[in-house]
Amino acid sequence: MKQVLAEIITIGDEILYGQITDTNSQWMSAELDKIGIRTVRKTAIGDSREAIVHALQAAEAIADIVLITGGLGPTKDDITKHTLADYFGAELIFDQSVLDNITRLFSARGREVTPTNQQQAYVPANCTVLQNPIGTAPGMWFERNGKVFVSMPGVPYEMKRMMLETVLPLLQSKFETPYIIHRMIKTINIPESTLSDLIESWELALPPHLKLAYLPRMGQVRLRLTGIGTDKDALLADINRETEKVVAIIGKYFYGYDDDEIETTVAALLLEQGKTIATAESCTGGYIAHQFTKHAGASRYFVGGIVAYSNEVKVSQLGVLPETLAAHGAVSEETVRQMAENVRIRYGASIGIATTGIAGPDGGTPEKPVGTVWIGYADGTQTIAKKLALAQERSLNISLTANAILDLVRKQLSS
Amino acid sequence: MKQVLAEIITIGDEILYGQITDTNSQWMSAELDKIGIRTVRKTAIGDSREAIVHALQAAEAIADIVLITGGLGPTKDDITKHTLADYFGAELIFDQSVLDNITRLFSARGREVTPTNQQQAYVPANCTVLQNPIGTAPGMWFERNGKVFVSMPGVPYEMKRMMLETVLPLLQSKFETPYIIHRMIKTINIPESTLSDLIESWELALPPHLKLAYLPRMGQVRLRLTGIGTDKDALLADINRETEKVVAIIGKYFYGYDDDEIETTVAALLLEQGKTIATAESCTGGYIAHQFTKHAGASRYFVGGIVAYSNEVKVSQLGVLPETLAAHGAVSEETVRQMAENVRIRYGASIGIATTGIAGPDGGTPEKPVGTVWIGYADGTQTIAKKLALAQERSLNISLTANAILDLVRKQLSS
Q1: B116 → closest Cβ in A51, A197, A305
Q2: How many angstroms separate the CA atoms of A338 and A329, rounded?
Q3: d(CA B18, CA A23)
Q4: Contact B88, B142 (CB under 8 A)
Q5: Strand A5-11 vs strand A38-45: parallel, antiparallel, or unpaired?
Q6: Before B361, cis peptide (omega within 30)?
Q7: Chain A contacts of B312, Cβ < 8 Å?
Q8: Contact A21 B26 (CB under 8 A)
Q9: Domain A5-174 belongs to what topology?
Q10: Closest CA of chain B from A377, distance in Å
Q11: Is the pTM of this model over 0.90?
Q12: In a structure prediction context, what are the per-residue pLDDT tens digits for chain B, which is 415 residues long?
């Protein structure tokens, strides 16, 4: 079976000038991967006819499927549609179904269709229109010499819905694809080189159709094991066998697979044990609560938390003793212990966790430089406090602190 | 003056397979842009010799500067360095200064240098080594026919530090660049097409050396006005004049420029007026507190907040009346008013803000479908509550709720 190859083209000066991050192409390639289509290149270009034509030609040369996002908004900086029409040798024609969709969307919001929006109902004559149920710009599907080109809006949730409901099913019916299986094996609190040395002999003995990659990110290293083949069951068995081996070697640094995050691993342990958690955050400022609550169903184990940013709030709302703050300061073992213990009791949770530290870039002292952080854990039976010496960068310090306390909770719940 | 052009190449299967988002190339192009270097393409490819060579050739054909990230980690999936050595016709040679740097880093962390790390001290003979003060993989600078190629590690904070301290200054000394000035004009709570119609006659009258782009994101539309020229003062005067005009047209939907975010605009107003704020979050679950506290200096205006996720916590820690919850439910005007008023008083802030709603995907009812959200504002003189009817998607609902309440605070502080 021939491997089906895709290129993703992102159009927009805003990507080139660095005003926005392209998250679309990541999501798209992950979805293609799930159905056995391999992305071989991603190209981002500006709103320029010449660049678009060049990118289409280059993509047509190496890929079977070319997915294009961006350059379809209602405003004047968009030339994608005209360039596509020319590239495929067609005129723009008026499409009533597109205007009907725009009208429906606008009347639902109590708005009038503007002339700018009416222009969006013109599409190249030789494309198949893909309706956009939640936006005004339609998608467009072209075919030439067995290759498929799909143009979609750049607004992430519009693109995602169009991909899931229309584009991916159509691609699956058109192309025959091999099985690609990925297993992500997630580790925490072990550096990449140490992990590499630890699992070296296992890695060297991997069969040739399985490939390993190291993906470090914010204090975590994820291992991605990828298998490709035609026999799905055999491939899955191979992946499972090798995963089991390597997880045994990694031991306590391993916390989950695939879509697991450290906070969802903790959440699963809490649910399994019928426990709840509450947070008392100073330096992480609500970030840990957000890590729990960004996932649906968080109310089953997360009761709430406090962001005790000022010392006054630490005293009045969290019951930290003023004399503790006076004697040891807010960034201290004594303070973090009281924070964890008190939030547990006040919020009626099984477990209380706490953070206090100097996230930076300001606020450091010779004794407590930027990156000095205390984390605390209390479960009614014991209280644990731990000091971290982190980095210079504020957002990194916030993430690494969250990692550290969540991993401490994981270990306590697993022991 | 000839425009200096750059291409950014990102290497790594993890980008192609969609396991991680490429944030490096966004940051890099924004930095290049600041010094008048125009990024004309971004290409992401896998860890394949053939793809790397092809991308280098394509970039060499269109750009003066080629910046490469990724593919330099200590582990075995990296082939970038060998391919670069071949591409520039050189052997890999041992570099003592690189090993010294690795040894220094490891002893600071109390670790031994592993054989895997020692391999990182081999570099192509004809490159200039760029030391990596915070990581083990060195950067490499190559020149050929007046063009510059720089290979950097893919770890974001290592790459950023190398760019800021070494690469950008070297590029500025090597190339003569024009002035590019961007002005970002940020709007909130107005749809892109409405905004476009509102400012149409201004936009049509723009001088040809000024270009406008619409950048919609999560309920906000940013306008980017870009000017290019050789006379910096004249260009800046043009940008300032047109900005003043369009801001007057946009009126109450305008909230800030450039790096301003809605929360930093609110923060600036609070500081200016000597006021403080506290948050009571239910459906946003700590996200709004994190928006404030992710910025340095938040302690000057943000005293803290509560994530009142469960009804018990709303009652015990925030003083919402049990009879209110029983009669109207947690997602109601009455509840959000009490949340905002009580957090203001209990946390000793000038202003209290609150959110309660159904973020989804579960928890909706016919009367209160997913996306039903109440936001509240209290300043001691008045309390304002507002109902939102948002979307189906959890993370979008969290962002849009934060937008709405922060914009409400902005308007109150500006009126």
Answers
A1: A197
A2: 12
A3: 9
A4: yes
A5: parallel
A6: yes
A7: 303, 348
A8: yes
A9: Molybdenum Cofactor Biosythetic Enzyme; Chain A (3.40.980)
A10: 18
A11: no
A12: 678 999 999 998 888 887 778 889 999 999 998 888 999 999 999 989 999 999 999 999 999 999 999 988 777 556 899 999 999 999 999 999 999 999 988 887 677 888 888 888 999 999 999 999 888 899 999 999 999 999 999 989 899 999 999 999 999 999 988 888 889 999 998 988 899 999 999 999 999 999 898 888 888 999 999 998 888 899 999 999 999 999 999 999 999 999 999 999 999 999 999 999 999 999 999 999 999 999 999 999 999 999 999 999 999 999 999 999 999 999 999 999 999 999 999 999 999 999 999 998 888 899 999 999 999 999 999 999 999 998 778 998 999 999 999 999 999 999 8
Per-residue buried b or exposed e for B332-367, using 16+ beta carbons within 10 Å of the residue's own CB: bebbbbbbbbbbbebbbbbbbbbbbbbbbeebeeee
List the single residue in B with minimal CA-CA distance to A36: B17
Asked if B203 reaches chain A (Cβ–Cβ under 8 Å), the answer is yes
ipTM rounded to 2 decimals: 0.79
Q: Where are the domains of chain A?
A: 5-174, 179-257, 262-414
Q: Which residues of B touch A20 (CB under 8 A)?
A: 26, 215, 217
Burial of residue A217 (CB within 10 Å: 0-12, 13-18, 19+) is middle
Helices (H), B283-347: 287-293, 311-316, 322-328, 333-346
Q: What are the CA-CA distances from residue A168 to residues A67, A349, B402 (Å)?
A: 11, 44, 33
Distance in angstroms between the alpha carbons of the first and the last residue of chain B: 47
Subunit contact B289:A288, Cβ cutoff 8 A:
no
Architecture of domain B179-257 in CATH? 2-Layer Sandwich (3.30)
Who's near B117: CB < 8 A, 6+ residues apart?
A: A193, B74, B102, B106, B136
Tell which CATH architecture fits domain B262-414.
Alpha-Beta Complex (3.90)
Q: Using CB atoms within 10 A of its CB, is residue B405 exposed (0-12), middle (13-18) or buried (19+)? A: buried
